[in-house]
Amino acid sequence: MNNSLLLPCKNIFESSSNGIIIFDLNHTVTYSNSSAIKLTKLPSSGYHIDEVFKIFPELNFHSQLDNVLKNNENINIPEVSGRDFFYEIFITPVIDETNTVVGGSILLHDISYIKRLEEIKTKFLTVAAHQLRTPLGGMRWSLEMVLENKEEISSENQNLLNQVYQSNMIALSIVNDLLNVSKIENQQIVDKPEPVNIIRVIQKVLTDHQAEAKIRSVNYKVNLPPAETFPIIQVDKGKIKEIIGNLVANAIKYNKPNGSLSVTVNSDQQNISFSIADTGIGIPEKDLQRIFTKFFRAGNAVLNETSGSGLGLFVVKKYIEDWGGKVSINSKENIGTTVNITLPMNISHVIAPETQTPKNKKTIITLQPQSETPISIQPEGQTQAIPNTTNQLTETKPQEITTESNPELPT
With 0-12 CB in 10 A as exposed, 13-18 as middle and 19+ as buried, what is 198? Predict the structure, then answer.
């Protein structure tokens, strides 16, 4: 590489707080600015680029370098740790005046301070959420006891108490979302897999949200396969119910009066997939890329429904991807939104190891799906009414798993 190409830029590079490293087609470093020398503890030039990559042993940079030098691609790695620091890394081609790739550049952006702030924020939210959940839970049970004695309460007071109760439930939901995010970020989420029939979970969630759907004039359009013949998968029942509950709640909350909520479910030999669609306010195109970001809510969603944490879809995506599944959203503003979920039949679960392991380490196991053995289930047609809760599925009790090395946060 002709060093004259760098001369006009050297003063700019030296004034940057980001580490900048330039290398040629032979992967030999020809220039490093002062920040890069400080970050890597390496000379300014004359060594192989592999010396830089040894700082980040968990990443395979060689294939990415080929893409940069041969395919003229830009690479962004949002977060990687090295030598007790965190970096965002950009790898880009260096092009001469004839538009020919003559080498590449690496920019090391130190995000350690941001990570420390995030850690402090997460700890604060965890403590605050735990402190809030206890009194909110006490309020909930007290209100439910009072509301059970309807004959002793005037209709006016009943309305006021119902409003307080609904506000309390919203606050509890936000607190629980915060605790879930805290567990996810601290890698304290542990699966408790058991045989689950997705059809029955969907039916139960729809039943639980039926009153809210009626209040908001949202109609269900549900055409589910028969539960008796649908494959059973090994999955954490609480989490899959939370996922479907989040999606159904959103489809109701952000729908339009006299709108509809549709659920479709399919399966093949490899996957189970389901979609939840609404005819609501939709998501602006500019917000779609950020819709799974923690605490993010689309602008029209905030205007339509002021309450909300912006954490539901973040949690959904994290759970699904940890299981080896996929989640996607199709949406058009003022037309509606469809959320598509695909889960493999053989789900990889994160469990707590039986022996002591380093903190935050995950152990992955794969459990095979089991056949279903239903009893006392009423016959169902292709278009199913939502069953009452007396219909139960007999399932094999899974083996208990200890959680000594990665205990969940106390409740």
Answer: buried
